[in-house]
Design a protein that fits this description.
Number of strands: 6
Number of domains: 3
Helix content: 55-70%
CATH superfamily of the largest domain: SLC41 divalent cation transporters, integral membrane domain
Strand order of the largest sheet: 1-2-3
Structural class: mainly alpha
Distance between the termini: 70 Å
CATH topology of the largest domain: Tetracycline Repressor, domain 2
Largest sheet: 3 strands, mixed
Length: about 450
């Protein structure tokens, strides 16, 4: 029902935007939720989206800011850049500081400095402070709009303060307890406030075992912690354990989606900025380098085959089986690598545990290699000869074993040295598996070529 309604709204808004009836289109948008507005705007043509959003911003600044927070970063930056400086500044000042920092960080440097200077000093300072942290860390994605009280404050005083200051912070999932120097001492849920006597000091009911992260913690690790402990928000502290901000669950969902997208794209050799609805030229620009790398690495396999040309000439049937052998090894390597990369992302696979995972994946490779090797032997023996069937079967067992080892070892090594393990896809694991498999197959064939020709 909701999808049908949105599709009808999209058709109506698109027709109005194309006729230039922006006021009528804005009236329809205002009735929608911010996330629905973001989805509808994303499906419009670029010029229609910019014109409509400009009119929408001047009609309802608050809702326009909420919709901007729900958009893909690329689309949000595009819309922000299309506005004049005054409208863009007012819009940024409506956003939470972490959202504003994200969008400003993606803008050209000249526009970034201009907008920061135009913003109110307090908001500009908050954004610049967040921009001072490294990308994809807790410090960059945290918000400084949190609710914290001194340890000696009573429950009654806390509730009064919460009611009075509710508009000063983004979300009050928890109350954080601090001392006079802003050190994080404990945390209290809103439920605890209702279940204890009003005169009770916060330090009496707070939990001092606080799950927290440092400002330099990787955002993927933050997401894992929040998911593991089912938190609605996690506090961020500096080196002195002073409360610097919080990361709320809605931002964690964005991180999880972003990291998952990056991993999926990287495994396929695609840039994370590539979009199905983007321009063809942009897709070519983003994909061509990966295709070029693939061409270069594929030539390594060609070099191996070229080295064994005399062997292949002596038994031409060897060439017939090369596509099958290479395909099996590549596919097995991709399977192993995908499982391991996912395990690294979830924290299930670590450097210390990698040898166990490698042993397990090696065993999997041996068992699968034996299974497909037996099947391949029967087919090749029936079609060609049992000698060639034995060679193919032995190669498949070896290939799937190597796929298990490399599919585990290379991603964990990359993670160990702080590289993205998802980049281990076709660039390292598949290429090495193919080259080593071909060396084994053709090398063994060279040693047994007279036997194969009988």
């Amino acid at each position: 029902m909701q999808v049908q309604r949105l599709n009808l709204m999209l058709d109506s808004i698109t027709r109005l935007a194309r006729r230039g009836a922006m006021a009528n289109a804005v009236n329809l948008l205002i009735k929608l939720r911010p996330v629905d507005i973001a989805q509808i705007l994303a499906q419009l043509q670029s010029y229609e989206r910019e014109a409509l959003f400009k009119a929408f911003t001047r009609n309802d600044l608050t809702k326009a800011a909420e919709a901007l927070s729900e958009m893909e970063t690329e689309n949000a930056v595009e819309l922000l850049t299309s506005l004049d400086k005054d409208d863009a500044t007012r819009l940024l000042q409506e956003l939470p500081s972490d959202d504003a920092a994200l969008l400003i960080s993606e803008m050209p440097e000249a526009s970034r400095e201009e907008l920061l200077e135009a913003m109110k000093l307090e908001l500009s300072t908050d954004v610049q402070e967040l921009l001072g942290f490294a990308e994809e860390t807790a410090g960059r994605i945290m918000t400084q709009d949190y609710f914290a009280l001194d340890e000696d404050v009573t429950i009654s005083e806390a509730i009064t303060s919460l009611q009075r200051r509710s508009e000063d912070f983004e979300m009050a999932f928890y109350i954080y307890v601090i001392d006079s120097r802003h050190h994080l001492l404990g945390v209290i849920s809103l439920r605890q406030l209702l279940l204890n006597p009003p005169s009770t000091p916060l330090k009496k009911i707070m939990s001092s075992d606080v799950i927290k992260v440092m400002t330099g913690t990787d955002q993927e690790e933050v997401a894992r912690i929040v998911a593991t402990y089912n938190l609605l928000a996690v506090p961020v502290v500096d080196e002195e354990n002073k409360l610097a901000g919080i990361i709320t669950v809605d931002d964690i969902i964005d991180v999880i989606r972003e990291e998952a997208t990056e991993d999926i794209y990287a495994l396929a050799g695609v840039n994370a900025d590539d979009r199905a609805t983007g321009s063809a030229f942009n897709s070519v620009k983003l994909r061509l380098p990966w295709i070029a790398i693939s061409l270069v690495t594929s030539l390594l396999g060609v070099a191996v085959v070229r080295f064994f040309l005399h062997t292949i000439e002596d038994s031409i049937l060897l060439a017939v089986m090369i596509p099958v052998i290479v395909t099996m090894g590549s596919y097995a390597a991709t399977q192993t690598m995908t499982v391991v990369v996912r395990g690294l992302g979830l924290g299930e696979v670590t450097w210390d545990k990698s040898w166990r995972v490698m042993l397990k994946e090696s065993l999997v490779g041996l068992l699968m290699g034996a299974a497909v090797g037996v099947a391949a032997f029967g087919i090749v023996a029936l079609w060609f000869s049992w000698q060639l069937g034995l060679l193919v079967a032995a190669t498949m067992i070896f290939s799937l074993l190597i796929a298990g080892i490399l599919g585990t070892l290379i991603p964990t090594l990359l993670k160990r040295f702080r590289f993205d393990p998802a980049l281990a896809s076709s660039v390292f694991v598949v290429t090495l598996t193919d080259v080593i498999t071909l060396l084994f197959y053709l090398g063994l064939a060279a040693a047994l070529v007279r036997f194969l020709n009988r």
